[in-house]
Design a protein that fits this description.
Strands 1-2-6-4 form a four-stranded antiparallel β-sheet, with no helix packed on it. Strands 5-3-7-8 form a four-stranded antiparallel β-sheet. The N and C termini lie far apart (43 Å). The chain is built from one helix and eight strands. By secondary structure, it is mainly beta.
C-alpha cells in the first residue's frame, strides 16, 4: 500500500506594482513560514533577503538592480513550514 501526500500550495504571492526595482513577497497562507531566503540566479543584483519568520499577511520587499531581468534572471525563494519541511519556489521577472 502506498500513501500519497496532497499537493502543497506555494504560500506566497508576488506584488509587482513597484516593478522593476521593487517586488513585494507576501505570505498569503494561514501558516507562519521560517528561514525565508531569496536569492537571484543570473544577471543583476538582489539586495540580500533573509528573515527568520514571515507570519500570515506579512511581506518582505525585494530590491532588484540590473537590466534585462525578464530574460536573464530568476529569483529562488527558500523557506521552512512549521513541521520543518524545506521548500523552494522560483519566479521570473
Amino acid at each position: 500500500m502506498t500513501t500519497s501526500t496532497l499537493a502543497y500550495t506555494v504560500p506566497f504571492s508576488l506584488d509587482r506594482s513597484r516593478a522593476p526595482r521593487v517586488y513585494r513577497l507576501v505570505n498569503d497562507s494561514p501558516e507562519t513560514v521560517t528561514g525565508v531566503r531569496v536569492t537571484l540566479v543570473g544577471t543583476g543584483l538582489l539586495v540580500p533577503v533573509a528573515t527568520t519568520r514571515l507570519d500570515p499577511a506579512q511581506s518582505v520587499d525585494l530590491c532588484v538592480l540590473g537590466v534585462e531581468l525578464s530574460r536573464s534572471a530568476i529569483a529562488v525563494v527558500r523557506w521552512f513550514r512549521p513541521g520543518g519541511e524545506e521548500y523552494l519556489w522560483r519566479f521570473s521577472f
